[in-house]
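Instructor's aside before we start: the two examples that follow are unrelated to each other. I chose them only because their records fit on one page, so don't look for a connection. First example below.
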Amino acid sequence: MIKFLTYIIKFIPVLISTAITFVSVFPASNERLAEEITEQVQRIEALEEAYASNRIAPVDEASFFAGNLKEELEAGIKFNEISFLATHNSYQSESTEEIKKLYSNLSSLTFGILPENKGDFKSETLTDQLNSGIRSLEIDIEVFDRDGDVSFTCMHSPNLEMTTTCYDFELALKEIALWSENNPDHLPITVILEPKGFFIPMEDMKKFSIDYADEMDNALRSTLGEKLFTPADMLRDYKSFGEMREADDWCKVSDMQGKVLILLHDCGATEKYISLDPSIKSQAMFPMLRQNDIERDCASFIIANDPAKLLKQKDEITESKVILRTRCDSFGNAPQERFEQAMATPAHIISTDYPPRTDNTAENYVVSFGNRTTVRRVVE
């Protein structure tokens, strides 16, 4: 009892500081969001002008491949034979000082279970990530519905962690499309969209539903246009993904260059989205399912975030010919064992919070397939 009281007394100042900091987070987050909304618009305008003036040179796509990319493309390497380094929370900019302090206090209260540096996480802009060779992105989605006027925005947690370079989702798509137009021979880009739940909703914020999924399809088609590579494009004459996978006939990568694939992360609307057309041919997004769904006819992309578990089921899953996504770390928690496990899996999308960066501010731990490469052949 005495030890418990001693503990309480010791942490009373931290508890008080945490409460005060929590209250200060809300106005600070909203102030930063207002700034970043303006910054995003200005950045896209500047990029449009720079691309139009030919002031941004295309990247050397082959330099990101661990091997001879030209030979692989000429030999007909298929989409399920290639592995991409991905970024997690690809939109998240530097946290406010209030959030950083909150994480620091919570780390003290949890004896370090929550890493003190959690608030230090930040991604570069989508353009910089693409310029660094990242070909798989992840964007969290929130829905606003103002009397039928639906819009999609991107942030981690409404009212709390809202720092983002991609608040306006359609502008984020435009940023990707602009980069793609300037690099027409790039390897296919996958964008994972994860509809988020919310702890403290903002005004007019709604949960993602099948109706909003339909709105999302429309936004993707209108914004990306011919850049969008749809499930129908992948399936060609096959009746289902099950049939295509049985034939082991994923599209050749050379037929997907310059394209963008949108993946709908498993969420509450997934099953209804699939039920609209079980073949998935009429949808704009590829539904991402879980490991226990690999035998379903509609299965294409599978979430397998635990690389240790994935390794145990390696043979079974490899035989199914699905596209696998795993994670090799999370910010503040990057054990070498998990990294090695992820690299040994047959995963096609390997997500990290520590990718190569254009600003050279990365810590000592940087994930790549060797020599800062970000694409390779899948491990067999």
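Example two begins here.
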Amino acid sequence: MKESPPPLRGIIRFTSPGAPCPVFKLPTSGAVIFGREKGDLRIEDPLVSATHCQIQAVDQAYVLFDMNSRNGTYVNEKKIRKKVLNAEDEIRIGQTSFVFSLESEPNARDISPLFQATESTRSRGDNTTVLRMLHTHQPESAWQLTLQVSQGAGGKSETLVIPQQQVVLGRGSGFPVFARDENLSRKHLLVQVNERGEVFIDDQSSRNGSFLNGSRLQGLHRVLPTDSVAIGALQLFISASLKV
């Protein structure tokens, strides 16, 4: 039986000046809301409504919905209410334009996602509300990552302190505990902390997958220090702390 190709990741590239970010990748489930005052991506454009439109990931496709905006949402200069997006569609809201494209997960790996949990959000995963993009090139962070790594539940544990806000774990990451595990891909799991000290993880299209509290990881997820993350034969507990 022939395997179906892996799903592609939606990418947004802004083409108008004054955009909030140059490029970001969409989540594999849930929605991203664009608006001037509310939503996941704030756009400082007087012609954009407070909540203007949203892009939802639906059945391995991305669908654009206008949210009853004052000035409308346009795809290839045609006003829409709802449209399944195709690669290289040009989207315009107010005076702000961006292009939708599709990339394989390996090609999208180095493109930043949008993420930041709200004060009111206690759940994790694709339902986490996003507010601001964490750019690839950030100023030095005040946060560092701490990983408790053990050989499965109850196994011998060691602590790794990583004095940076982002690391990709795997056999190629330079840490012996990961290099020894043949079940890991060279680039297996992205771990990233935002400016508020919230930790997020994203599987990097690994061969054997990553697991959060026993469930296979799909898309970007927030993790708490009590959450169990499993990659290969290793169990991780991940937290962030301020640098001393």
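Confidence is low (pLDDT under 50) at residues 116-140.
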